[in-house]
Amino acid sequence: MSGNCNKYESAFAKQFGFDCAFSFWKGRVALYAILKAMCVGPGDEVVLPGYTCVMDVNPIKYLGARPVYVDIEPDTFNMNVELLSGKISSKTKAIIAQHTYGYTCEMDGIMKIADQNGIPVIEDCCLAFGSKYKGKTAGKFGKAAYFSFQWNKPYTTGLGGMVITNDAELAGKIETLRANEMCAPSGKETIMLAAQLAVYRLFIYPRTTAFIQTVFRYLTKKGLVVGSSGVSEFKPVKSDDFFKGISSVQARSGFRQLKKSQQNIAQRRKMAEFYDHLLEKKGWSARRYDASIMEPVMVRYPVRIAEKDKALAEAAKAGIELGSWFECPLHPIETPLAAYDYEVGMCPEAEKASMEVVNLPLHPRVNEKVAEKTVEFITSFTEIK
Ligand SMILES: Cc1ncc(COP(=O)(O)O)c(C=O)c1O
After folding, report:
1. Among 69-78, 185-194, 335-344, which is the least confidently predicted range?
2. If you average pLDDT over every residue of the chain, what do you get?
3. CA of 290 to the centre of ligand 1 (A)
């Protein structure tokens, strides 16, 4: 591990008031490290929401365990706690509490069920950096939490992942795994990632995002850029170089952005409130969550609409940045659901949300003008669902 990585990990752990943090090449690698350190293996089950990214399911499958999906509740898109008990069995080894879009899960309910059954909770904070539940920051409830710093996450180092835990035994096991099994990114990967970060800083603005994403997906398929998900990752089979650490480029970028994270959080909160205001003015409903228990820091602003596909296509033509995750219960749409033990009908609310939800941008380059244009587009193009 380079000095830059150590410095970044220490700063990250400190920000959460934790003893240690462990950095990885991607968020999914961070989850893999946690699950492996928890000795999850063949015959075990891991419970998670059926409204997620398939890359989050891969680590479970790589270890030979079975994902068990819980449907979501329709306002916050998070695991419906009322359905959780019914998914726990003697084989359950972990519960993944994914804080979706920035909304925190109903942590009291989840922790109660987990504690009653002696099952560890892993928090997926990839979409919720700084969100709070009853005054406590997401990431501080479970046995471990993990984060992602991929392109469209709360802050980006191009790619990147981090684990935090205060459990000394688990931390020791992750440390041993890193020492024995982790590989380093190649020189080529590091150079490509540094170049991509530069392109991101220079060229990605709300009006160019759709175009650049299309180019980027094409180049990823051709292996010409370090994409977040290569073709081989749509199969539940681990590649030899999956378990990888971060490069100095990512660590330096992460350290710099961590220092600015309070500004990032404040900006996201302010702009999400501005979207609430703009949508309400148009007669659309704003976010629905209990503000007396939750302080969300949104990574994107979800809205349910009619004619999702058409709206996405027209938005791209008009230079309006609209996001489409999650496109199906195990995003993206190309995922072979059966290979991931998902049967259509398992999570009806998640399937409905996948057909209706688009998300509005909230990254640091979104200002009031962009928000106004985006809301004007979406409200005049279609209807709320
Ligand atoms: C909710 C969630 N968790 C985890 C991940 C995996 O993160 P990464 O792309 O850094 O592996 C993703 C994917 O983007 C995600 O959306």
Report:
1. 185-194
2. 93
3. 25
- Range 189-194 average pLDDT: 88
Sheet with 20-24, strands from edge to edge, namely 20-24, 161-165, 144-148, 121-124, 92-98, 45-49, 66-70
HEC string of the chain equals CCHHHHHHHHHHHHHCCCCEEEEECCHHHHHHHHHHHCCCCCCCEEEEECCEEHHHHHHHHHCCCEEEEECECCCCCCECHHHHHHHCCCCEEEEEEECCCCCCCCHHHHHHHHHHHCCCEEEECCCCCCCEECCEECCCCCCEEEEECCCCCCCCCCCCEEEEECCHHHHHHHHHHHHHHCECCCHHHHHHHHHHHHHHHHHCCCCCHHHHHHHHHHHHHCCCCCCCCCHHHHCCCCCCCCCECCCHHHHHHHHHHHHCHHHHHHHHHHHHHHHHHHHHHCCCCCCCCCCCCEECCCCEEEEEECCHHHHHHHHHHHCCCCECCCCCCEECCCCCHHHHCCCCCCCHHHHHHHHHEEEEECCCCCCHHHHHHHHHHHHHHCCEC
**70-127 pLDDT per residue, tens:** 999 999 999 999 999 999 999 999 999 999 999 999 999 999 999 999 999 999 999 9
Indicate whether this model's pTM tops 0.90: yes
Q: Are 28 and 176 in contact (CB under 8 A)?
A: no
Q: Which atom of ligand 1 is nearest to the CA of 149?
A: 10
Q: Is 127 in the pocket of ligand 1 (CB under 6 A)?
A: yes
- Mutate which of 48, 105, 150 for ligand 1? The one with the most ligand atoms within 8 Å of its CB, which is 150
**In the chain, pLDDT over 70 holds for what percent of residues?**
93
Give pLDDT, residue 198.
82
Closest atom, ligand 1, to C-alpha of 229: 9
> Ligand 1 centre and the CA of 263: distance in Å?
23
Ligand 1 contact, 28 CB (< 6 A): yes
Check whether 217 has a pLDDT greater than 90: no
Looking at residue 151, what is its pLDDT?
A: 84
